[in-house]
Every structure is written in C-alpha cells, then in structure tokens.
Design a protein that fits this description.
Blueprint (H helix, E strand, L loop, with lengths): L2 H11 L5 E5 L3 H13 L3 E5 L2 H10 L4 E5 L7 H9 L6 E6 L8 H6 L4 E4 L5 H37 L5 H16 L4 E5 L13 E5 L6 H7 L2 H13 L3 E3 L2 E7 L5 E8 L6 H56 L6 H13 L7 H13 L10
Parallel strand pairs: 1-2, 1-3, 3-4, 4-5
Antiparallel strand pairs: 6-7, 6-10, 8-9, 9-10
C-alpha cells in the first residue's frame, strides 16, 4: 500500500484510535455517552463499578476518562487520586449533575483534571470538550514521540561515532534508525565516500529485516523504480518518498552525497527526526571511511619506511664488507667494535634503542677511512 493511501485510511479511522473510558454509577449515562461518542467516530467503553473501571485503566491504554464527580460510594476526586498513582498522563473530564455541584478549581489543579461538563440534553458542550481533549492528547503524543526520538538519536550518537569496522557502524546506524520509527526493514547503500577523483573506493551495502542479505540478492531486489527514487534522493540531496518507504540522502561535510538510507515507513510522524538522524549517520560513516583511508596511507608509509630501512642496512653492510676486504688482518674488526659499543651502551640507562643503533653504525664505520687509503 502506498504511503499516500495509508494516510487517507488514517484520516478516516483516526478517531477510532482515540480510546475513551467512562465511569458513572448510572447505566443510563453510560449508554448515552456510548451512543453519542460512537456516533462521532470515537471508541468508548463504560463502567458503573468504579473499581472495575480503575482496573481497566491500570491494565489498558486510554486517552480520555469521563468520570462522574459524585459517585454513590466514592467521590470522583478520590478515584482520580487512585488513578494518578499509576497514570500521570490520562486526560480526565468530570461529569456533574448541576453547574452548582461543579468541582472547585483547586481540586481540578491539584489532581491535574483538565475540565468538567454538566449532564444535560445538550450534547454540544460534551462534544466540544471531547474534541478539545482529542486535539490536546494528539499534540502531547506528537511531543512525546519527538522527545523520545530525539533521546534515541542522542543515545545512538556515541555508538555510531566509535571507530569500528564500517560494517559494524552501518549495522549500528540501521538498528538505531529502526528504533526511532518502529520499523523492521531498512538498508544503507554508500559509495563515492570522499567525492575525490583518483580515489577508488568500493561500494558498501548493509541491510536489516528483509534487506539483510548479500549484495547479489539485494541487486535483484533493487528494482528499476527503487533505483530511480534512490538516484533522485542523491541528485536532489533531499528525502524522497517511495510507496511505503522513504529514501534519505547521506550528505557529508562537503555537501556531497555519499549514498542513501532507505527505511520502510508506514506513517510520517517521525520523518523530520529521520532527517536529523541521517545527517548524523552520514557524518559517522564519513569519519569511518576517512579513518580507513588514513590507515591505508599509514600502512603504505610503514611499508615505504621498511624498504628504506632495508636499503640503509644493505648499504651499511656493503661498506663494512668493502672495508674488511681491504685488509684481511683486520677483517671483522668493525663488527666487534660495533658489538662492544652496543653492549657498553646498554649499561647506560639514558640510551634508548635508537641511540644503541646509532652506536652500532658508528662502530661499523669507525674505520671506513681505510677504503680510501692506498695499499
């Protein structure tokens, strides 16, 4: 199902997800509330026994409680106090028989009760308050989702910025991504990491869920339509929706696109958070590749150093043998001087390995002048 079609279904059924519970000792009031609220698309269930109602709230999720202020065996305020012991966020409206019996403002504020409504034949006041509750609860849920999503991003940053193998980082990025949006399927495809000519870097792929497969199988899943949308996200450097998912470009600090993240997304509630997370993911992936490139360069330098050192040792050895060939009588003399110099040097704690090697070379070369002396 396309994302646009899903949105239409959500708009039709959105009130059905708004769960209302009512507690009133008059069964007639409960039946009336059920007829009125379900007529306008709300999901409602009611109880005449306050203890059963409290138990239901404790074991299930509800968005709104419509509570009789003056129950037969207990005051509505006492019921609220019991509920607030385990649920601080439930939106509560009091029902009162007459305006004269309305709860005092101090009671409403103390127990975080959002309002009250008088029982009457006029439905407009009740419906207005319920609609207001629906809007407020929806807004609070959005704020909560955003807050939780941002917390997930903040918690994930230290993990994805650790210097680990690129496969480990990509998997960490995907796991944290799915945790934010409560999805199950996603993948990262990255290449052209540095955006520089002359540097050839292989492409990297990592999938999770149904995309957790090898690159050959993934290539078969990556149909032409997916390719077009992935390319569009890279070229435009902005997210692109594709049926039941979204492509996010991976932009490095040079504003170059390194690849894309794709995640199956059945609603767009956290889509802006994913934009933020994609930027963090791109930065961590770029850092990992820069670190890999640095390691490659360091390895090349170490190999070059070893070659130079080997040539240096060969040159010293050649000169030593040349000096020995000049005079059979003193053959091996320079080697012995070098060995004794090193052994004596070891007696001095201030000398390190580099100093001892310098002594060895000096011992070998101390008679180098013999090469230029006539026989």
């Amino acid at each position: 199902m396309r994302l646009s079609n899903i949105k239409k279904v959500e708009l039709v059924n959105i009130k059905e997800k708004f769960k209302i519970i009512g507690i009133d000792d008059e069964i007639g009031v409960i039946k009336t509330l059920k007829v009125i609220l379900e007529k306008y698309g709300y999901e409602f269930e009611g109880y005449t026994d306050h203890a059963k109602g409290i138990e239901q709230i404790k074991n299930n999720h509800y968005d709104l409680l419509i509570l009789d202020y003056l129950l037969d065996n207990i005051n509505g305020t006492q019921v609220v106090e019991l509920i607030r012991q385990f649920d601080k966020e439930l939106y509560i409206l009091f029902l009162t028989g007459h305006s004269e019996s309305a709860p005092p403002l101090e009671t409403l504020e103390k127990n975080d009760i959002q309002g009250y409504c008088t029982k009457s034949n006029d439905q407009s006041q009740l419906l207005l308050l319920v609609k207001s509750a629906y809007n407020v609860v929806g807004m609070m849920n959005e704020i909560r989702l955003t807050r939780n999503g941002l917390n997930c991003i903040l918690e994930s940053v230290p993990k994805i910025y650790q210097l680990q193998p690129i496969d480990v980082i990509l998997e960490e990025v995907l796991r944290n991504l799915l945790h934010i949006v409560k999805s199950t399927n996603a993948f990262i495809f990255a290449d052209n990491i540095f955006g520089q000519e002359g540097i050839s870097m292989e492409s990297f792929f990592k999938g999770i869920g149904k995309f957790d497969t090898d690159i050959n199988t993934f290539t078969k899943m990556f149909n032409p339509s997916l390719m077009v949308h992935a390319g569009s996200a890279r070229m435009q450097k902005q997210r692109v929706q594709y049926e039941d998912g979204v492509f996010f470009p991976l932009i490095n600090d040079k504003a170059e696109c390194m690849g894309v993240i794709y995640v199956e997304l059945y609603n767009d509630k956290n889509i802006n958070l994913l934009d933020i997370f994609a930027k963090q993911a791109a930065s961590s992936i770029n850092n990992a590749f820069l670190h890999s490139l640095l390691n490659i360069k360091n390895d090349e330098l170490n190999k070059t150093y070893e070659i130079i050192k080997s040539r240096y040792e060969e040159t010293i050895d050649t000169l030593r043998l040349t000096a020995d060939a000049k005079d059979d009588y003193t053959s091996g003399h320079s080697d012995r001087v070098a060995r004794y110099a090193v052994e004596i040097g070891k007696c001095f704690s201030v000398l390190n390995e580099k100093d001892l090697d310098l002594l060895r070379v000096a011992g070998i070369f101390h008679d180098i002048g013999k090469i230029g002396t006539a026989d």
